[in-house]
Structures
1.
Amino acid sequence: MAHIYTILNQKGGVGKTTTAINLAAYLAHYGQRVLLIDIDPQANATSCLGIDKRSVQYGVYQALLKIGSVNDAILHNPRLKISLLPSSPDLTGAEVELITEDGRDSRLRDVVEDLSPRYDYILIDCPPAMGLLTLNGMMAATDGLIIPVQCEYLALEGISQLLQTIERVRSASFRELTVRGVLLTMYDPRTNLSKDVETEVRTYFPQQTFQTVIPRSVRLAEAPSYGLPILAYQPSSPGAVAYGDLAREILVGDGKAVPA
């Protein structure tokens, strides 16, 4: 059965999608069978892997509404060895259409449970908002949440708000919901601000903050415009090395063998 992680933060621009696609790429590179699920109506993860979101005829929207077979929606990139359940602009209407449906907050969990035996890892990329789609992502995260935190002012305030939401979900619906790790992103060692944020986050989450830190990187910002993860675009860059280290850290934490 797959390890299922949901990557979320209600704040935009923190490196959430960047983390989803690059972590997926490195886990696949290290021999894992990986499925990335894009549940953001903006479909950034889909676009970042070179898929035109306007061309998606069947994706996560149809899967959530139980239209057809989810197997028909999964795309596979043989070069990157990543499978993708894509998003499209259609997903914008899903929250309205699901509101009266039974089990509306666990639709994605049902989809993931069916797919889990086929993969080693399933990563879910959420929208930067706390709505029904993100709630579906949280409910499907049987192995925990990965929370990217940008090294900037007010970062901890955003985490505090997110933790309150997580606690409400845990109390109301999913007691087993956990935080797998907090990931520091866009770190600039030349600034005191980045160092101060790192100190505060590690003090606040001493056991849950990943040792790996993702640096601020032009190459990481450029790679999506080519429809590629950093592993395929610039594998020697500091950002690539960092995401490789993150994948290794997760594999070790999950008790899996890590290639030399």
2.
Amino acid sequence: MSNPITIGHIARAHGLKGDVAVVFYSDHPEQFTAGFQLGGTGGTLAIERVRSGAGVAIVKFAGVDDRDGAELLKGVQLTMEETDLRTLEEGEFWPSQLQGLEVRDPSGTKRGVVLDVITGGAQDRLAIQVASGRVEVPFVDALVPTVDLEGGFVVVAAIPGLLEADD
């Protein structure tokens, strides 16, 4: 893949027949249906079938026919070409677009870097590396009012303690 975007990961094996639990980083997981091809570690994985599970999708990939094969996929990051992704709405971002962005306060001072996006039920959180350690900031407009992908930064609100890791 020339410009892959991470769209999910394989969390664990599920059952004995090669199924895996997949966490999709999408509000529209219905797009990942039988026949859909995803990039993964070392090659392409073709979805054979998919069904809903508790907070995950239960996916059977072609050629993975037993629990041992499914166990080997644990932790694999699933990717797609950016051109194959659905068009995002204003204010939506893929986690891989945010990883590595500089974190600035409203004055423009660099405060850290985005390590990851942690998906959650109520809202997603940005995991940020700051001078004092790692912090998590809810990814909501009130706390992260600016995301500038072209400029390579996000702005985080100036709230005392928000960008300070506990010791």
